[in-house]
Amino acid sequence: MQGYVAISYLLAIAAVVLVLKFHLLPAVIAGLAVYVLTLKLARYLPRNMNRFAHKVALAVVALAVITGLTGAGTAIWSLIGSSHGIAALLTKVVDTLGSLRPTLPESVAEVLPTSIEGLRQQLMEMIGMHARKISAVGMESFKVVAHVLLGMVVGGMTAVHHFREHTSAPPFLGALRARLRRLTTAFDKVVFAQVKISGFNTALTALYLLVVLPLFDIHLPMAMLLVLLTFAVGLLPVLGNLVSNTVIFIISLGVSPMVAVSSLLFLIMIHKAEYFMNARIVGHEVQATAWELLIAMLLMEAMFGIGGLIAAPVIYAWTKAEVKEQGLI
């Protein structure tokens, strides 16, 4: 391997470590999302435009992408943070578990949380100590929002710059561009493939919660929030589906045992369908099976916490593409 290529790999590894260590992942994800979406939409621009008009059109596309992502993120955050959001959902889960406590074996009842704080504490212990940072407010939250907005702007500017004509780059700069190109390709494949899978799961869940159950005069509490939760956590491969399934099962159990059994059977069907979708979409795109992604996620979570867990699928796909490019696998 040539020296400048080896150095580009070392810099790429250092960049990943620094991004995760200094909690810059939201900014990087936002920037990559704007960059990839802008390039995808730019393909539909007329090809006979002059350079200035093309640059202006690209800037408009990038601005539209940033505005759309910001609006969607604000809407989701407002819904989650409202009085009928996640706090209400946690309250319902705790109430359901509390009502079930007398009917459960003592060994099981002892480990169930008795309050919202108890549930939150157990979730934090399951996810890891780094999850405490999720609840940070004030200046820390403002800093994250600022990082995300800055990342979006950088992603849009990079997309516009991408279409400029370049003279032949020096070998080292070419190697750095190759690393960045494979990173964006991995991000494109993994994230948008997972969006398709999450959308598929969410559509089936919405059909079950909002159509099938009401046909039998069964109305699950906060069904719309459960659909939104399914899509949000479904963006995390493998583990996200488990989280949403557990919450839906517990809420169903609070309605009746028969509804819980029905929901469990339906969720098992979705779970099997998700593995099929993973094999067809994610597996086809990055040549990775669910167990490979799960191992990568567990290792990255152990090293970097929640940030590593979220970044693991993209980093794994990126690493695998680089290794294949060197002919090692």
Description:
With 329 residues, the protein is mainly alpha-helical. Helices cover 79% and strands 0% of the residues. It starts with a helix and ends with a helix.
Span between termini = 16 Å
Level of helix content?
over 70%
Approximately how much beta-strand content do the residues carry?
under 5%
* Whole-number mean pLDDT: 79
Oligomer: single chain
H/E series, N to C? Answer: HHHHHHHHHHHHHH
DSSP helical segment count: 14
How many domain regions? 1
Largest sheet: none
Sheet/helix structural class: mainly alpha
Strand tally is 0
Q: For the CA atoms, what is the radius of gyration?
A: 22 Å
Give the topology.
Elements: H1 3-21, H2 25-42, H3 51-81, H4 86-100, H5 106-109, H6 116-127, H7 139-162, H8 171-215, H9 223-234, H10 239-255, H11 257-280, H12 282-286, H13 290-304, H14 306-325
Helix pairs in contact: 1-8, 2-3, 2-7, 3-7, 4-10, 8-9, 8-11, 8-14, 9-10, 10-11, 13-14
Give keywords.
single chain, mainly alpha, 14 helices, about 0% strand
Summarize the structure in short.
The chain has 329 residues and is mainly alpha-helical. The protein has helices at 3-21, 25-42, 51-81, 86-100, 106-109, 116-127, 139-162, 171-215, 223-234, 239-255, 257-280, 282-286, 290-304, 306-325. It has one domain (3-325).
